[in-house]
Amino acid sequence: MWPIKKAARKTAVLTAGAVLSISLLAACNNGNNAAAPQQPKAAEQAKDNSPVVAEYEGGTITENEFNKEVSMLKFLTPQYAQMFDMDQYREVLLEQEVAYESLAQKASEAAQKAGATQAEEQLTQLKSSVDPEQLTQMLKTSKLTEQDIKDYMTRVLTASEVMKEKVTDDKVEAYFNEHKKDYTTATVRHVLIGLQSADGKTTRTDAQALKLAKEVKAKLDKGADFATIAKKYTDDTGSKEQGGQYKDQKVGNWVEGFKNAVLKQKIGVVGPPVKTDYGYHVIKVESRTEKEFKDLTAEEKDTIKSQLASQNFSNYMANDVPKMIKSKNLPKAPAPAATEGAGDATGGATTPGTTQSPGTAGDASTGKSTTESGAKSTETAPAESTTESSK
């Protein structure tokens, strides 16, 4: 029931919005980079006579191009459509578009090919996840084409590859050494006494939750079977049917209080109730294994590389893009009109890696989001890149 790790957030909310689209496309695969680089804007620029809304070192952004960018984001993430109509976010989206364009211009041949290959894969996955007639209607509503989607994804993922090229193996290893504890794996059992019960029918005060958690610990200290107790008392639907157990999980996936307890508690001993935003946890650590850098899988190393690339993009947005923009003339946002969300037909999950819509809860062990009924859904991005990954 409870999301074990909250999405990481930058100090400036606008920065999170600026890199949102990269996080939504974070499920790209490396694969063989054999596709030819795309030139998505050439034909459009020949026809586009709309006013220039941004001039930067190396190019311009027209009003038509910017409006298409906004439409694309609304199509991919309809749950954030209102946000993209806010003037402050429109300013950031304009800077984001400059970032994508400028990075694509300076991309190496390898980055261009990788971006094009991954965009093709993303479009294929999108088309396979949506009924063809629904997709046609969604595109029509958004005034977009499949080629528009492919061009956008190519540009974003090419920019992502540019940032990943800046991340050396030494930087990946340094990051691991700095966050080594987060890569410890553990098998734990826990009982969550939430401030709200799993069925949502009971609300508890902090004192009431703590009292019940202490009662649960007392039962366990007297020899009660942990699995039986967990199935009876826990408010964590993600582990309830497993008797409260999460097996061989990376502790970095867990919220700070829970993670620290798992790292410090003695093996096989039921610890005192641990408080998090979700209530009180009674935890028993069954095993704990520390990792060395040589033990990381290729996927784990690539995840670190993507996290560092995400930071590179954030730094580029904050430090480089403002300096390269010569002028901006962005019209105010149009008055909001009643529209049907482009992604409603798929429940808001329009692309692989899409952030879950409000109302979902998290599987405490895997980082996978679950619906309120407990059914598992799309896997979320790594915690440090939930909204800002540039993979």
UniProtKB/TrEMBL annotation:
Residue ranges of coiled coil: none
Keyword list, A-Z: Isomerase, Rotamase, Signal
One annotated GO molecular function: peptidyl-prolyl cis-trans isomerase activity
This protein's record includes keyword Endoplasmic reticulum: no
Signal peptide, first to last residue: 1-26
Tree of life domain: Bacteria
Low complexity bias spans: 335-362, 375-391
Region spans: Disordered: 327-391
Residue ranges occupied by any PpiC domain in the UniProt entry: 183-287
Protein name per Swiss-Prot or TrEMBL: PpiC domain-containing protein
